[in-house]
From TrEMBL:
Protein name: Endoribonuclease YbeY
Keyword Lipid metabolism assigned: no
Subcellular location: Cytoplasm
Main location: cytoplasm
Cofactor(s) in the UniProt record: Zn(2+)
Function of the molecule: Single strand-specific metallo-endoribonuclease involved in late-stage 70S ribosome quality control and in maturation of the 3' terminus of the 16S rRNA.
Note describing how the cofactor binds: Binds 1 zinc ion.
Protein's organism: Flavobacterium agricola
Similarity comment: Belongs to the endoribonuclease YbeY family.
Gene: ybeY
Length: 139
């Protein structure tokens, strides 16, 4: 199951479309869906989680807690909508495009992709682009 939770006044339009897309991302990586919760929040909310659980005193766009077991993908993905909006401006892309990138990014981490080195980051960006292109593709 995929759950969308809101700690701000933002609401994802057409949750079913996003659910279908995320399920197809997982299937395309030969994984199974367990339970994923997306929590949309603001900078202050995510900063508190970053400090409390990760001991990082910085702002970030996404924090994911991975509960994946084997090939069954599960976890909690916290997304700061303020960071997404700022990143969209910085990268000169629409907000929805950047939001899709972050939604896919969290799931890709659960599928085993990392982004700590330049090589890993390049592969992650390539995978994000690949998965974003699947958004409107019918099954």
């Amino acid at each position: 199951m995929i759950y969308f939770n809101y700690e701000t006044d933002f609401t994802l339009q057409n949750e079913d479309l996003f659910t279908d897309w995320i399920e197809r991302i997982i299937e395309s990586e030969n994984k199974e869906l367990g339970e994923i919760s997306y929590i949309f929040c603001d900078d202050a909310y995510l900063h508190q989680i970053n400090v409390e659980y990760l001991d990082h005193d910085t702002l970030t766009d996404i924090i994911s807690f991975d509960y994946t077991e084997g090939d069954v993908i599960s976890g909690d993905i916290f997304i700061s909508l303020e960071r997404v909006a700022d990143n969209a401006t910085d990268f000169d892309v629409p907000f929805e495009t950047e939001l899709k990138r972050v939604l896919a990014h969290g799931v890709l981490h659960y599928c085993g992709y990392k982004d700590k080195t330049e090589k890993e980051e390049a592969l992650m960006r390539s995978k994000e682009d690949e998965k974003m292109a699947m958004f409107h593709v019918e099954q």
